[in-house]
Amino acid sequence: MISVLNKFYNKIINIFNNKTEVKKYCCICHSNVSEFSCYRGGWKAQPILMSILDIVGSDVDNFSCPLCGSHDRERHLYLYLEKLEIVNKLAGAKILHFAPEKRLSKIINEFKPLNYVKADLFPTELDIEKIDMTNIPYESETFDFVIANHVLEHIPDDFKALSELIRVLKSGGIVILQTPFSSKLKSTFEDSGIDNDLLRLQVYGQEDHVRLYGLDIFDRFTSVGFVADLKHHESTLSDIDPIYYGVNAQEPLFLFRKKSCVG
């Protein structure tokens, strides 16, 4: 009888240990977690077109940290910025951050930038300025860094937005332009007939997206004068296990620079 109880006890302990086994790590809150939370049921629940087009963007299976709430795209961006030592250049810099992620914003503030403008068309916090990316109320050559992490896919006139971003960026400045894209599409897809939430969800992957970028993404972004400085996970973050850190290894860092003025 005792041996049977011991076996039962050991079985319960093993089940508990397996459930609480640490499998992932959040680089934002520096915590070990058993799993990251998925987004809307993960990849298996996404619109079929997203799988057919092999969309590169958020890791919807490892989306948010159950402890701090950080999303995979801000964890990935932070890893890139840290590895490239860009975070060390934030001190004393002027930064414009669209749709600022709460956790990433806190980290940026810790580096004590000279001026950190958090912007959104629909602000949710008092310290976020109401700013339309297609009409930025700042003088030309104001900012050293501009961050727009998964924002451009929401903006109807992205060319006008890109023109404004390069205008307010200083010569030699850096802009981060993360956005979902498909390597299966030769050119970016956007259509005025996709005009309701259900259609946008099925075609673009989210109800408030207005386009899906294709392989012409670099031509579109550099058409206003930006110079591409693309970074890939496999080379830049070769020591970072994407499964352990809960990030999408297929997502590159869309880093662009504004040419320095000569003379």
From TrEMBL:
UniProt xrefs under Gene3D superfamilies: Vaccinia Virus protein VP39
This protein's name: Methyltransferase type 11 domain-containing protein
Annotated ranges, domain Methyltransferase type: 120-177
Transmembrane domains' residue ranges: none
Molecular functions per Gene Ontology: S-adenosylmethionine-dependent methyltransferase activity
Alphabetized InterPro entries for the sequence: Methyltransf_11, SAM-dependent_MTases_sf
